[in-house]
UniProtKB/TrEMBL annotation:
Pathway: Lipid metabolism; fatty acid biosynthesis. Keywords: Acyltransferase, Cytoplasm, Fatty acid biosynthesis, Fatty acid metabolism, Lipid biosynthesis, Lipid metabolism, Multifunctional enzyme, Transferase. NCBIfam families: fabH, PRK09352.1. Residues 250-332 form the Beta-ketoacyl-[acyl-carrier-protein] synthase III C-terminal domain. The last Arg residue of the ACP-binding site is essential for the weak association between ACP/AcpP and FabH. It holds the Pfam family ACP_syn_III_C. Catalyzes the condensation reaction of fatty acid synthesis by the addition to an acyl acceptor of two carbons from malonyl-ACP. Catalyzes the first condensation reaction which initiates fatty acid synthesis and may therefore play a role in governing the total rate of fatty acid production. Possesses both acetoacetyl-ACP synthase and acetyl transacylase activities. Its substrate specificity determines the biosynthesis of branched-chain and/or straight-chain of fatty acids. The lineage of its organism: Bacteria, Bacillati, Actinomycetota, Actinomycetes, Kitasatosporales. It catalyses: malonyl-[ACP] + acetyl-CoA + H(+) = 3-oxobutanoyl-[ACP] + CO2 + CoA. Its EC number is 2.3.1.180. Belongs to the thiolase-like superfamily. FabH family. It comes from Streptomyces gibsoniae. Its main location: cytoplasm. This is Beta-ketoacyl-[acyl-carrier-protein] synthase III. The keyword Transport does not apply.
Length: 338
């Protein structure tokens, strides 16, 4: 009887992020929107956000974050997974271009689309590539130039969304070592896809042979219902992830990293999970909601600041369009972001 191969886990070995240098403050937004700094802060928790300059695309952000993650890991990768809602073009995928620009050669490279849950969907995908033996090292990048699909005149979304990229390098390793990715809890509900959408630009609108209605090229979100769905699904998936990791519950987490959607959502979800404020990682005040990039940017910044350290029990969760959501729990490794 042939021997059963040892199980291979995907282990976090490198970390990096990149935010575009241009910063938009709340005061900047008040010059063109019927809003105020106080209104934005109290409803979103955001004071500033980074935005791409004209001509800067998602791939530009992804390349910089990917390069930093590769430097952090001290090596290359034989596959690239890019989680994004804002690809450079509808076709082809953006990941092959990113891989080429990073000098990785003709490696496997493809995009994953799960909106703000993209990093966790990408993490599960990258872990699967490693577990199956398809790849030994995977560069997972989450990048969004989200402001390119937001209506600048929409107070409900223009104050929230921003641009950025974060990346991790995953290598084959042992399931018991720090940084090993275990079960990633994932879910979706397409029956509610209209709560978060860009109505125009896809095959449904194009096949109608009619021009899109004004504003349908922009991102739309039903804020109140999204809030309810986000809290419910992030809490439920976090509990499942903690159980899968063998914890007593989410309260075992030393650090809680949730997609930086909105300060109110984060506070409510963490409260329902029994995670006290001092264990919650957050950068939303100065970064805003960067879509799929939110979680890896948060991890890179927290690791650089020392608020996330080796040995911490880390609980990750996200919610996004689709509807889609996910969570996972792991022991944070000794990795230094670049």
């Amino acid at each position: 009887m042939s021997a059963v191969p040892d199980r291979r886990a995907a282990v976090i070995a490198g970390l990096g992020c990149h935010l575009p240098p241009d910063v938009v403050t709340n005061d900047d937004l008040t010059r063109r929107l019927d809003t105020s700094d106080e209104w934005i802060r109290t409803r979103t928790g955001i004071a500033t956000r980074h935005v791409v300059a004209p001509g800067v695309a998602t791939s530009d952000l992804a390349v910089e974050a990917g390069r930093r993650a590769l430097d952090s890991a001290g090596g290359g990768a034989d596959a690239v997974v890019l989680a994004t809602t804002t690809p450079d073009r509808p076709c082809p995928a953006t990941a092959p271009d990113v891989a080429a620009r990073l000098g990785l050669g003709q490696v496997a490279a493809f995009d994953v689309s799960a909106v703000c849950s993209g990093f966790l969907y990408g993490l599960a995908t990258a872990a699967g590539l490693i577990a199956s033996g398809t790849a030994g090292r995977v560069l997972l990048i989450a990048a969004d130039a989200f402001t390119t699909i937001v209506d600048p005149a929409d107070r409900g979304t223009a104050v929230i969304f921003a641009d950025g990229a974060g990346a991790v390098v995953l290598r084959a390793g042992d399931p018991a070592e720090p940084g090993a990715v275990g079960r990633v809890v994932l879910g979706s509900d397409g029956a509610l896809s209209g709560l978060i959408e860009v109505p125009a630009g896809g095959s449904r609108q194009r096949s109608s042979r009619t021009a899109a209605a004004p504003g349908e090229e922009f991102f739309r979100m039903a804020g109140r219902e999204v809030y309810r769905q986000a809290v419910g699904h992030m809490v439920a998936s976090s509990r499942l992830a903690a159980e899968a990791a063998g914890w007593n519950g989410p309260g075992d987490a030393d650090r809680f990293a949730a997609h930086q959607a909105n300060a109110r959502i984060l506070g409510t979800a963490a409260g329902e999970l029994g995670i006290p404020p001092e264990r919650r990682l957050s950068n939303i005040e100065h970064v805003g909601n960067t879509g799929a990039a939110s979680l890896p940017v948060l991890l890179a910044q927290a690791a650089a600041e020392g608020t996330l350290a080796a040995g911490h029990l880390l609980l990750l969760t996200a919610f996004g369009g689709g509807l889609s959501w996910g969570a996972t729990a792991l022991v944070w490794p000794d990795v230094k972001p670049c």
